[in-house]
Amino acid sequence: MTAPVTLSLAVNGAVHEVTVPPRKLLSDVLREDLGLTGTHVGCEHGVCGACTILIDGQPARACLTFAVQMEGHDLTTIEAVSEGDRLSPLQQALHQVHGLQCGFCTPGIIMTVTAYLRDHPDPDEVEIRDLLSGNLCRCTGYQNIVKAVIRAAAEIRARAPA
Amino acid sequence: MYAFEFERPRTLDEAVAALADDDAQALAGGQTLIPTLRQRLAMPGKLVSLTAIDALRGLSASGGVLTIGAATTHAEVAQQTDYPALAKLAGGIGDPHVRNRGTIGGSIANNDPSACYPAGVLGSGATVVTNRREIAADDYFTGLFETALDEGEIITAVNFPIPDKAAYAKFDQPASRFALVGVFVSKGKDGVRVAVTGASEGGVFRWAEAEAALASDFSAGALEGLSVDPEGMIGDIHGGPDYRAHLIGVMTRRAVAAAG
Amino acid sequence: MSVGKPLAHDSGPLHVTGAARYVDDIPVPAGTLHVAFGLSHEARGTIAAMDLSEVRSTPGVVAVLTANDLDRPVDVSPSAHDEPLLSTGEVHYHGQPIFLVIATSHRIARAAARRARVEITPRPAVLTIDDALEAGTYFEGGPVVWTRGDIKSALEAAPRIVEGQIEIGGQEHFYLEGQVALALPQDDGGMAIAASTQHPTEIQHKVADALGLPMSAVRVETRRMGGGFGGKESQGNALAVAAAIAAARTGRPCKMRYDRDDDMVITGKRHDFRIRYRAGVDEDGKLIGVEFEQFVRAGWSLDLTPPVADRAMLHADNAYFIPNMRIVSLRLRTNTASATAFRGFGGPQGVLGIERVMDHIAHELGMDPLKLRLANLYAKSGKDETHYGQPVKGFELADIIGSLAESSDYHKRRAAVAAFNAENDVLKKGIALTPVKFGISFTLTHLNQAGALVHVYQDGSIHLNHGGTEMGQGLNQKVAQVAAEGFGVGLGRVRITATDTGKVPNTSATAASSGSDLNGMAVKAACDEIRGRMVRFLAETHGLKPKSILFKDGKVHLGNQRLRFVEAVQECYMGRVSLSATGFYKTPEITWDRVAGKGHPFYYFANGAAVTEVVIDRLTGEYRILRADILHDVGTSLNPAIDIGQIEGGYVQGAGWLTTEELVWDDKGRLRTHAPSTYKIPACSDRPAQFHVALWGRKNHVPTIYRSKAVGEPPLMLGISAFLALSDAVAACGEVYPALDAPATPERVMMAAKRVAG
């Protein structure tokens, strides 16, 4: 067995020290060592996208990342998306326009889309298709997820200073 | 997952030293290697991350050559404008998540027979630059998951001569979005190249007949009547050899049409 | 009014913040252990030797158990007692659990399991339908045959005969949350289980049997699942039982979850079918008789195959009156994972069989397929009976189809498709309109019962519990709306709580689309009971007639006086009125003789129709769904937003089943598509470019909960229109009937286009 290593991980604006084996996946460290269970593990093959988090602001799969790779990077999980007690426009929209059913894929979708809307607040239909190509949903048929993205984008644009 | 050590060198020299161990394995974006490790198809004793080495990052174009650092992500390549056909290839790899993490160096070091980059590198007549030497694309890809890289040799960059015309046409394996068949065509000062990925049991290859036909007439019409022998094509759960051979013809014509 | 509003899912705020807990997210006590199975690497054979010493010696491993180590034979089947938890010497499929490992972490348990050396003497495996036919491995003693009329004479007399065959692939559920269960040993020898299951009572029953406990000593709780689709009806039994055995052995909490590969390899999927048909029609396309042979690949154990195969037979008519009929159903035993429940439960295969027949006949007769379908539809008057003898009442499908054809511009678009195809050689378009009529009720009559438990607390808050489980379908939301309606209060007063066998006993699986029909009624009964007690008390104390007391808008109206709901509750509490009640419901009118294949198995039918337009690239076989229009009947909707979500999701899942979702086993019986990188479920880019869904708003003709209709399964079959639109597009490549098999992968579409072109 290789000795566990002690890492400093910057997650959701706080630095956490964890001691984990080098082989431990980031998704497992987030869930088991940091108790951040909103990052879901759906397929562990890097396909379903349920484990999506942001690494330095960009969506990536926590199940295709070792925690030891993450020192010096800034990590954001679903637990840090709300604006204080207020849901973000995207969270609000997914809830209100029924963009979720079983909810298991929802955190991953929120991470992917949140990063995209930050840089591209006016996505068209084609962009949204590609944007969501790395996140699978088995319940909704995606229709209301796309609607929610469009609604959230409009809300974000409306809020932005002119 | 079995046990291994992990190192994250800051310089190329440190990386070279770390990779000197027999069972050390370089780790780039990890989008292919980590699933492979999980399935225990590879069991190195030490992983050496290459993503913290500044010398391996970045893009620059000069004198008609685009140089891409080995640790440059697909997303970064997709955004460059010097070589649009390559940008399009990179932007069509996997999904946004994969493109944010996966790197060009990692992709061509692995040389998956269904990956897109090998077609782009071979189809452009690019040069693979390592810490030891420069390797022409024609000499670099040597077989299924096989390359000309020696033990401990690290790709630092890839130099792409920017052609006059180029395009990539890919038929996705729909579940993974790897290429069931992908064809990269280019027409530059050194002639026409047609590189095919996803299809052959030998990995990426140049389709010589198509190159010859296109050399005199760079148009989809010039390829009429040309076909690839299904012998030696991959037959798997995603498609048979006949289907793949057929798709090579279709995708080549489409790539040529797209290249204009 | 709460009922009928498009209210959002009750757990939405938890889902969007990541706060919603699934079983694997529940904080566990320190010292919790983890369980993993060691699996068979052969499809069929006898265990010759098993060396588990390296498994046992792996650091972190606490115990390793084989069937011999168990205190008693442990079965995890839903009914037939033919599925030992661990192989008892014979292995019946590749991936069958042989031993279990208990370790300090999930990863250690899994890694240790791989270190086993198990020698299996292989025997020739029966893998395919053809293998099973050759080997004669039938369940239920042979074919099940139902007949109507005189099929032989009918086919002899028929002016036209159309015959053929379709292969229909299975389908992996791919619930995003894999199977998982957590067992917590109790101080009194009992066991508490948290499981991701559609059937807590069955888990309770199986765990009790495995531990030698009465059911009263086992409590199972299910707050939510990350998707079920039928895959968590019986397939969670093994995990809960294994975790419970491990917990009982070690005295420590034990958790078991499958990694995705294991989940796909071990658990059952939708049954794959081969359907052979021979149909007699007159020159106008009127059906005279149809003969079906349904070959059902059941896998190694019985599981739920009998009712699944029955339902395929029950839906072999779909929406059409077929005066003479013969259906032969062969339930074939194979050395593959035991096929199981999957949304539609055999119905989709039965419906696809007859829709294929209609498509084929229309092609042979050169008739518009919609015209052909309308000519054969059951009568609106209710005079027709199905082949199993149930009158088809309240049948509005002709109107639904008419309305959909108009709103979707079907006829104009069909002409436009033909015009497009005449001008384009590489791209070809296709369009198809298909209906669905789906029978609602469990065909096992006794399962059509449900219970609920409602408490009203003295502060006016309401605790709601019922026997149904939440898997994303919005059942809890709908049922909470029923409860709020029952007391005339806002939803904010109603607390939805986890399904719990300790609160509502003897529940049926949340399956057969029956969740809100059954549990909604049970909840209503409980609320009616409490409200009745309150009314009687308030009438007496306020000197009013009970009839003059109304619960409305958060108030209790007592003649001219109004009390806030909480004030009325407090008066009742002070007056020593019981404010807690159970509710019970059983579906009326249903009878069924499954041997004869006769009776009235369904309380009513849910109906709908879809038009799908596709474009194919005949050179590559690639395709896209350009547009889908759906008009679906949910009676008077309890919650239109939730219902539309079910319809959209069902359609996409149905279309996925018949297009990209291909399961491949190799000649050793190993599932090759055991990950989402090889098994392709629909992604965002696969959904229809244009998607229009509307509800047929008329009330159910039978008195269901607020005259609504079940919605879980029926829309899945609307996806058949996508498959037949592909068939239509392929047909445009030549003269021959495409006879597409399912799933219509791009390779199949390309090859069919080639074949059709000749």
Automatic annotation (TrEMBL), chain A:
GO terms for molecular function: 2 iron, 2 sulfur cluster binding; metal ion binding; oxidoreductase activity. PROSITE patterns: 2FE2S_FER_1, 2FE2S_FER_2. Residues 5-81 form the 2Fe-2S ferredoxin-type domain. Keywords: 2Fe-2S, Iron, Iron-sulfur, Metal-binding, Oxidoreductase. The keyword Metal-binding applies. This is (2Fe-2S)-binding protein. It comes from Maritimibacter fusiformis.
Automatic annotation (TrEMBL), chain B:
InterPro entries: CO_DH_flav_C (IPR005107), CO_DH_flav_C_dom_sf (IPR036683), Diverse_Substr_Oxidored (IPR051312), FAD-bd_PCMH (IPR016166), FAD-bd_PCMH-like_sf (IPR036318), FAD-bd_PCMH_sub1 (IPR016167), FAD-bd_PCMH_sub2 (IPR016169), Mopterin_DH_FAD-bd (IPR002346). The keyword Oxidoreductase applies. GO terms for molecular function: FAD binding; oxidoreductase activity. Keywords: FAD, Flavoprotein, Oxidoreductase. The keyword Flavoprotein applies. It comes from the Bacteria. Residues 1-165 form the FAD-binding PCMH-type domain. It holds the Pfam family FAD_binding_5. PANTHER family: XANTHINE DEHYDROGENASE SUBUNIT C-RELATED. This is Carbon monoxide dehydrogenase. It comes from Maritimibacter fusiformis.
Automatic annotation (TrEMBL), chain C:
It comes from the Bacteria. GO terms for molecular function: 2 iron, 2 sulfur cluster binding; iron ion binding; molybdenum ion binding; xanthine dehydrogenase activity. Residues 17-124 form the Aldehyde oxidase/xanthine dehydrogenase a/b hammerhead domain. The keyword Glycosyltransferase does not apply. Coiled coil: none annotated. Keywords: 2Fe-2S, Iron, Iron-sulfur, Metal-binding, Molybdenum, Oxidoreductase. The keyword Ubl conjugation does not apply. Its cofactor is [2Fe-2S] cluster; Mo-molybdopterin; Mo-molybdopterin cytosine dinucleotide; FAD. InterPro entries: Ald_Oxase/Xan_DH_a/b, Ald_Oxase/Xan_DH_a/b_sf, Ald_Oxase/xanthine_DH-like, AldOxase/xan_DH_MoCoBD1, AldOxase/xan_DH_MoCoBD2, AldOxase/xan_DH_Mopterin-bd_sf, Xanthine_DH_Mopterin-bd_su. Its EC number is 1.17.1.4. Belongs to the xanthine dehydrogenase family. This is Xanthine dehydrogenase molybdopterin binding subunit. It comes from Maritimibacter fusiformis. The gene is xdhB.
